[in-house]
Automatic annotation (TrEMBL):
Start and end residues of each MoaB/Mog domain: 211-346
Organism: Propioniciclava soli
Chain ranges passing through the membrane: none
Catalytic activity: adenylyl-molybdopterin + molybdate = Mo-molybdopterin + AMP + H(+)
Protein's name according to its UniProt entry: Molybdopterin molybdenumtransferase
Names of the cofactor(s): Mg(2+)
Enzyme class: transferase
Pathway membership: Cofactor biosynthesis; molybdopterin biosynthesis
Function per UniProt: Catalyzes the insertion of molybdate into adenylated molybdopterin with the concomitant release of AMP.
């Protein structure tokens, strides 16, 4: 007899209820957004950088955050435009070369000296060009019109008008005159105005600080040797860095970060302290997982040139914004124009959608998938024809270098026939080539 009775396998009971199946785990659904929806989402996640006072030597190119009015007169005092005789105009009424008026010379004022006592009726003061005008003087007669006698009298044979040859206080810039307005972008000339009225600091919005890096193991930094056939140089970091600087940001390019989760995590953690925005190119699922562990992550499938995942993370307690662009030079540049550039403008409290655009007409039929927005590097000519410089799947910076616009095909179009009117985004250096696209 067996020590342990074996349980017999029973036949299934036909009347018994079937065993419940374990439900399959739900497959997470990635949000799908249009280009416009993704841009609007990103702009909702950031606000303008807080302004603070900066030395005027450091503010050209920055946005002014206060109204500036003159709080002094320029010139500060009334001075003589010419050397001659400071007089009361009423004392010279009727004076002619034949019948000059005689005025007793009571003082002499050199340029830079104090004006002295007020001028009384019947008197005159010898004054140099630039000399300060004393009270009672309302005109200066040029030296050639007066003859000084040994008796101390000057004989002037001409009449004069009120304020003749005077550079009056406040005549060039009066106290209270509006000079600059909040929202103005400061230029070297406007900074000189600040100095002219005695300001050494001004309230401005600083340039957004952008950290840029690219993730990938097959990438090599420019200047280094390619050692394997599958390697290629990293042009994306350079491109995004240059584009962000052209849009007014202070950029810290980090170059290439290897596809190692710990290195990516450490890089992001180290850079948060100095970044208003972090832009990463490539990295795929790995960098999205790292970012998710460091803050709140949003992922969306956006049909821009192709269906690609665009991720945004709000990192740490400060919720430092991070935008992850697809790998590839053209894909990253297109993503920059569609999403990163508007964010930079928002940080700088300028119009997020500000970008020069022109209309054009497609030179040849373009075959593009329906439901996908296309930003295609193209050449816009003065006759308004637009010709793509490459196929929609190109990832060469060379194609961008030959283009002066990004031709935009909306997602609702299934291609574009020759002659179709399209909108084009003018690229940053188009004006430097003398193209007529910039308007």
């Amino acid at each position: 007899m067996a020590l342990f009775g074996r349980k017999k396998t029973s036949e299934p009971d036909a009347d018994a209820a079937p065993a419940a199946e374990t439900p399959a785990a739900p497959v997470p659904q990635i949000t799908r957004r249009s280009v416009t929806e993704q841009r609007a989402f990103l702009l909702d996640q950031v606000g303008a950088i807080r302004p603070f006072g900066m030395q005027i030597f450091d503010v050209p190119g920055l946005t002014l955050c206060e109204d500036i009015r003159s709080d002094l007169d320029l010139p500060l005092v009334t001075t003589a435009r010419v050397g001659g005789w400071a007089v009361r105009g009423s004392d010279l009424v009727g004076a002619t070369p034949e019948v000059p008026k005689e005025l007793y010379v009571v003082d002499q004022i050199a340029a830079g000296e104090a004006p002295g006592a007020p001028l009384v009726a019947g008197a005159a003061i010898r004054i140099e060009e630039g000399g300060m005008i004393p009270e009672g003087v309302d005109a200066v007669v040029p030296d050639a019109y007066g003859v000084l006698g040994e008796d101390g009298y000057v004989r002037i044979g001409t009449e004069t008008r009120l304020y003749d040859n005077l550079r009056r206080a406040g005549s060039e810039l009066a106290d209270g005159t509006p000079l600059l307005a909040a929202g103005d972008v400061l230029t070297p000339r406007s900074v000189a105005v600040l100095a002219e009225v005695g300001l050494d600091k001004v309230l401005v919005r600083p340039r957004p600080r952008i950290v840029v890096f690219t993730v990938g193991d097959g990438l090599v930094a420019p200047g280094q040797a390619l050692t394997q056939p599958q390697q290629r140089y990293d042009a994306a970091t350079t491109l995004i860095t240059a584009a962000a600087r052209a849009d007014g940001a202070t950029v810290y390019p980090l170059g290439i970060i290897s596809s190692d989760a710990r290195e990516i995590r450490q890089t992001i953690a180290d850079q948060q302290i100095r970044a208003d925005l972090i832009v990463a190119v490539g990295g795929g699922e790995l960098i999205r997982e790292v970012a998710e562990g460091m803050g709140e992550l949003d992922e969306a499938v956006v049909a821009l040139n192709r269906e690609s995942r665009y991720a945004f993370a709000a990192l740490g307690n400060d919720r430092t914004p991070m935008v992850i662009l697809p790998a590839g030079v053209v894909s990253a540049y297109v993503g920059y124009h569609a999403f990163v550039r508007p964010v930079i403008h928002k940080l700088n409290e300028s119009d997020p959608l500000a970008a020069p655009r022109v209309d054009g007409f497609v030179a040849e039929r373009l075959e593009v998938p329906d439901g996908i927005t296309q930003y295609i590097p193209a050449v816009w000519s003065s006759d308004q024809t637009v010709r793509p410089v490459s196929g929609v799947d190109s990832e060469l910076a060379w194609d961008l270098a030959r283009a002066n616009v990004l031709l935009v095909i909306p997602e609702g179009w299934a291609g574009a026939d020759a002659g179709s009117q399209v909108e084009c985004i003018v690229l940053d250096d188009a004006g430097a080539r003398g193209d007529e696209a910039v308007r």
